[in-house]
Amino acid sequence: DLAQVFRSIRTLGDILGTGDAASRVADQLELRVAAIKVVLRDLPKSGPMQLDDGRVRVFVQISREPLFTIGSGSFLNQLVTAAGGISVTADIPSAFPKISKETAVALRPGAIILSDSPDNLEPNDAFKNSYAVKEGRIYKVNADLLSRPGPRLVDALEQIARHLHPEKFK
To answer: What is the mean pLDDT of each successive set of 10 residues along the chain, which is 170 residues long?
Structure first.
């Protein structure tokens, strides 16, 4: 998760003899995360696919065919939550489960995050009649930002938060 990323930066800095510089980097990343939390306080409920607290129901599509997403073991669940969303697959066992199209249809996401890569440029066909597709709530985030738990996760967090709640980032 994000806290572990920041701890790892500091630990590596200590090991490599650059503890002060590493701490400054980790501190700056933590400040960016804290700024997102401040902006996302008091989310307005503005759509039918939002929870009562304003969080958006999100499906993260890692691969279009076969359809892979994030499950309970993925660090990306925390990222979606910190960005003002709730992963509709957070309770599925495994970190990156393959799911059926029937399961995907039943999830009813309000937004779809695509891990942007050449084989994952659009939502799986199972979502063609979903609210997310009909309302154009399909967002691409560079796969390099999402695929590794490192400093770039903060960039991904900022992008996802802006996509899910553009009204808060004017």
So the answer is: 93 97 97 96 72 84 95 92 94 92 93 94 95 95 91 95 91
Nearest CA among 152, 143, 164 for reference residue 32: 152
- The CA–CA distances, whole Å, from 48 to 15, 51, 110 equal 49, 8, 8
Structure tokens at 73: 């073991």
Tokens encoding 57: 């129901």
**What HEC string does 47-82 produce?**
CCCECCCCCEEEEEECECCCCECCCCCCCHHHHHHH
DSSP code for 157: H
Cα separation of the two ends of the chain: 28
Please give the Cα distance from 3 to 129 (Å, whole number).
37
Buried b (16+ CB within 10 A) or exposed e, 142-168: ebebbeebebbbbbbbbbbbbbbbeeb
Decide the pairing of beta strands 56-61 and 85-87: parallel
